[in-house]
Design brief:
1 helix; mainly beta; 4 domains; Methylamine Dehydrogenase, Chain H; Immunoglobulin-like; five-stranded mixed beta sheet; about 500 residues
C-alpha cells in the first residue's frame, strides 16, 4: 500500500463490480482495480487481509503488461459472462469469465483515451452494445461480442449527434432504450429514430419520363412500441436526379401510412429513392427508368479514321439507336454497307443494352475515300467517312526519262521521273527518293533527295558529265530494296 500511495497508484480510482454467482469454488466474487492497471478477482465472502504477493486474491490480472497506459479510472461492466474494461489510452478489453476466473481478453483494434466507465445495453443475452465515452471527444458504441465499432456521435452529418463537453468522470446511463450523458451544460439523450418501412411500390420500373405504375407506400412507427406515428411528415427524394414525386412530402394518416407517385427521370438508369422525415431514420428503395422507343440512329463513334489500303480500321464504326431523350435503345437492327470494296463485319448488328451496334471495316486494296452507311428500316441513314491511303512504299519504277542521248556536258532534254507505290500499286506521297550517278561526274538540278508528290512521283533533271560514255543513274526510294535504274548516253 505504501508503494501504491507513493506512486499515486491508489485503488480508489475505480468502483468495484459485484458479479452474479459463479460456478467455481468461489460463487460470490467481486472485481476491482486501480491506477496501477492491475485487476483483482476477490472472494467477497472472505476478503482476507494483506498477504505477500496478494495470495488472498482469487486472481490477479495485469491488463497491459510492460506498459503504463492501462490506468483504470472507471469501473468495469459485466454482461453475458464477460467483463469489460476501458483503461486510459489503451484498447477496450472484454474478458470472458468462466468458473469465476478471467480468460484471455478480446481487444479493440485501436486505443481510446478514456477515463470513463463502460456500460452495456442489451436485450437479455442478445444484441449487446458496449457504450463508453472517449474522453473529451465522443460517445462510442461497440458490438459487445466482437468489439467492432458500431457508432460514434461524431459520424452523423452536420454535427447532428455531437456530444458536448462532459463532466469529469461522467458515466453514460442506459435506461428506457436510451443512452443518457450528463454534460457540463446539458443532459443529452441518444435513442432510436422512429422507423419508416416501405409497404408497397418498391423496386419498380417505368419508361423514362413516366410515372411508376404503383404508388410508393410507407408506414412510420414508434421504434419502442411499434405503434403507428400519426401526423408525421415524410419526405421523398431521388437526390436531385431529375425525377419528381407527387407529392414530394406527405403526412402519415391514422395508421402511420403515407404514399407518393414517382415519375422517373428522362435519363435511363436505376435511381435510389430516399424516404426520410424529421426525427426519423431513412429508408431507401430503387426505381429503374428504361429507354423509350427508338426515334433515330446516330454515328456514335469511329468516323474519319485513316488506315492503309488492304488493312482494317483501327476502331470499329459504332451506331447508336436513341429515344426522344437520347437514351440508347437496345434491340434495333442496324445494317452496315460500304463503297470502294470495303467490307463491314458483321454487316447486320442488333444494338446492345446501351443502344450500340459495332462493325469492323476491312478496306479494299485501293486507296480511296470510303463511305460506310448505317441503315435501319424506318430511320434516316447515317454515314461514316473513312480514308484508305497507300501503305508503306514497296516499289519504285521509271515513268519517263530513260535511255536518253545528249552531248557530253549538257542537260538531258527530259526529266528523270519515277513513281513510288505500295504493295497494291497505290501511289505513295511524301516518300524520299535519292538519285545517284555512281560518281560519273554529272550533276542534278533539283533537290536531291527529292520527295514524291501527291501522285507518288519524284522528278529530277540531270546534266551529263563532260566526257562521252554511258551513265547509269539509280533512283532509290526509302523503304524499297531495289532502285529504279536509268541508262543515259553522253555523246
Amino acid at each position: 500500500m505504501a508503494y501504491l500511495n507513493t506512486h499515486d497508484y491508489d485503488l480508489s480510482s475505480t468502483g468495484a463490480l459485484v458479479l452474479p454467482d459463479q460456478d467455481g469454488p468461489y460463487p460470490h466474487e467481486l472485481i476491482a482495480g486501480g491506477k496501477q492497471g492491475v485487476v483483482y478477482v476477490l472472494n467477497r465472502d472472505n476478503m482476507g487481509i494483506f498477504s505477500p504477493n496478494d495470495s488472498q486474491a482469487v486472481q490477479e490480472v495485469v491488463l497491459e503488461p510492460n506498459t503504463t497506459n492501462d490506468v483504470l479510472f472507471g469501473s468495469p461492466a459485466y454482461w453475458n459472462h464477460t467483463v469489460y474494461f476501458a483503461p486510459n489510452a489503451s484498447p477496450l478489453m472484454a474478458f470472458p469469465l468462466s468458473s469465476g476466473l478471467l480468460g484471455t481478453p478480446l481487444k479493440t483494434a485501436k486505443s481510446y483515451p478514456g477515463s470513463h466507465s463502460p456500460s452495456i445495453s442489451a436485450n437479455g443475452n442478445t444484441n449487446g452494445v458496449l457504450w463508453v465515452i472517449e474522453s473529451g471527444a465522443q460517445l462510442l458504441a461497440f458490438d459487445a461480442v466482437s468489439l467492432q465499432l458500431l457508432y460514434t456521435t461524431n459520424q452523423a452529418a452536420n454535427g447532428r449527434d455531437t456530444l458536448p463537453a462532459v463532466g469529469h468522470f461522467v458515466t453514460q446511463t442506459v435506461a428506457n432504450s436510451k443512452v443518457y450523458v450528463g454534460t457540463r451544460t446539458s443532459l443529452e439523450a441518444y435513442g432510436l429514430f422512429h422507423v419508416i418501412n416501405i409497404t408497397g411500390g418498391s423496386t419498380q420500373t417505368a419508361t423514362v419520363a413516366t410515372a411508376l405504375s404503383a404508388p410508393i407506400k410507407v408506414q412510420a412507427a414508434n421504434p419502442y412500441n411499434g405503434q403507428p406515428d400519426v401526423g408525421a411528415t415524410v419526405n421523398f427524394s431521388d437526390g436531385g436526379k431529375g425525377g419528381s414525386f407527387n407529392p414530394p412530402s406527405a403526412v402519415t394518416d391514422s395508421n402511420g401510412n403515407a404514399s407518393t407517385i414517382y415519375t422517373v427521370p428522362q435519363k435511363a438508369g436505376t435511381y435510389t429513392l430516399t424516404i426520410s422525415g424529421s426525427g426519423f431514420g431513412t429508408v431507401t428503395t430503387t426505381a429503374t427508368a428504361t429507354p423509350g422507343p427508338a426515334i433515330k440512329i446516330i454515328a456514335y463513334a469511329g468516323n474519319k479514321q485513316t488506315a492503309a489500303a488492304g488493312s482494317s480500321l483501327a476502331n470499329p464504326v459504332v451506331a447508336q439507336a436513341r429515344d426522344i431523350y437520347n437514351n440508347g435503345v437496345a434491340g434495333v437492327t442496324v445494317n452496315f454497307t460500304a463503297n470502294h470494296g470495303a467490307v463491314p463485319s458483321p454487316s447486320s448488328v442488333i444494338t446492345d443494352s446501351k443502344g450500340l451496334a459495332r462493325a469492323t471495316v476491312q478496306l479494299s486494296t485501293t486507296a480511296s475515300t470510303v463511305t460506310v452507311t448505317g441503315s435501319s428500316p424506318g430511320f434516316k441513314n447515317i454515314f461514316f467517312v473513312e480514308y484508305s491511303v497507300a501503305g508503306p512504299a514497296a516499289n519504285v519504277a521509271i515513268t519517263s526519262g530513260n535511255n536518253q542521248f545528249a552531248p557530253a556536258g549538257t542537260q538531258l532534254p527530259q526529266a528523270l521521273t519515277v513513281l513510288v507505290t505500295d504493295q497494291y500499286g497505290n501511289p505513295v506521297s511524301g516518300n524520299r527518293v535519292t538519285f545517284d550517278d555512281r560518281g560519273a561526274g554529272g550533276f542534278f538540278s533539283n533537290s536531291n533527295p527529292g520527295i514524291t508528290s501527291t501522285s507518288g512521283t519524284a522528278t529530277q533533271f540531270y546534266t551529263l558529265p563532260s566526257s562521252r560514255g554511258t551513265v547509269t543513274i539509280n533512283a532509290t526510294a526509302t523503304g524499297v530494296a531495289n532502285p529504279a535504274v536509268f541508262t543515259e548516253t553522253a555523246q
